[in-house]
Amino acid sequence: MQLFFLNRLTDHEAQLAADEARHCVKVLRYREGDSLHGIDGQGNKYLTTITAIQKHTVTLSIQEVLADWGEHPYQVELAISPLRHRDRLEWAIEKAVELGVTSIHPVLCSRTVKTGLKASRLESLILSALKQSKRARLPILHPLVPLVDYLASTQAKQRFIPYCEASLLLQTTIPSTNPHTAILIGPEGDFTPEEVARAKESNFVPVSLGENRLRTETAAIYALSSLKWQRDVKLAGD
Q1: Are residues 167 and 221 in the same domain?
Q2: Residue 66, CA distances (Å) to 99, 120, 127, 128 in order
Q3: Distances (CA, A) of 14 to 17, 40, 47, 192, 208
Q4: Same domain, yes or no, for 125 and 231?
């Protein structure tokens, strides 16, 4: 099923704009009268029919709306340091979206090497991953902020900081309930002891991801996969 990102105009009409309209018409060769599946980034999935094709837009008639399509009833935020190699951070964010994160918080740590982010590129990647993974709620990409600012602002009820020196395994700490959860991943070289202490003061639980040393992007995906598995098992049993 090909998914498009659409703008809902009224209860009965929606529109594809810019790149989505171009891809629909020029690449995939959709025509008036064709059925089209879309998402709006707010959690809704649509079945529509193309009613008009203009130069830069495609107009759609809404036939059906499914709320909270492809989404789970919990929030997961990923706070992660930018990496020296841009492609590794992009890979981590892409897979994080596929694994169900609802917000992404780039954080500046003491050992962060690369501090520049191309927000527009990351937002495009997030949207592509959203459609690929058959989700309908667009994760929020927050601006890069110092770690201390993130620690002071997060609203997550459950908070984990994977850390090389931690001994408590992450899998043993995930509860059977589904609170808003934060996973905090550090840069190459890991967090400093002072940063771990600050995180603990902000109610982050230091956890281990096993005996092997993992790259930042691998640690992020390992942690998110563990969380998703635990919660999918719980939801399947309800």
Answers
A1: yes
A2: 21, 28, 19, 20
A3: 10, 10, 11, 49, 47
A4: yes
